């Protein structure tokens, strides 16, 4: 479990100064690092679902339903979760691109 350090404005300014960065740059890099970690978590979960069904895309998952190769009642939650994760992944990638 990580410890959250209280960081007052003065401490934050001092930290930025010690790092030789502007406060804005420290915030931007912090946000970027946080979002990159979240993106890795999302990609890992996507990988687990895709591996479980031996698929490479949400479209392929949908095709399995249409072909009757998997039962919706047994996999609908994974399908819904994968669709949501793919959306979140795309959104995070867009934000990270803007932060470059």
How are the SSEs placed, and which strands pair?
Blueprint lengths: L8 H11 L3 H31 L4 H9 L5 H27 L2
Task: Describe the 3D structure.
With 100 residues, the protein is mostly helical. Helix content is 78%, strand content 0%. Helix 2 runs antiparallel to helix 4 (72-98).
How confident is the prediction overall: mean pLDDT?
Answer: 90
- Percent strand: under 5%
* Count of runs of 4 or more consecutive helical residues: 4
Taken together, the total number of domains comes to 1
- Indicate the low-confidence ranges by residue numbers: none
Order of helices and strands: HHHH
Shape: elongated
Distance between the termini: 30 Å
Biggest β-sheet: count, sense, barrel? none
Number of strands: 0
The helical percent reads over 70%
Q: Label the structural class.
A: mainly alpha
Q: How big is the Rg?
A: 20 Å
What characteristics describe this protein?
78% helix, mainly alpha, 100 residues
Task: Give a nutshell description of this structure.
The protein is mostly helical and 100 residues long.
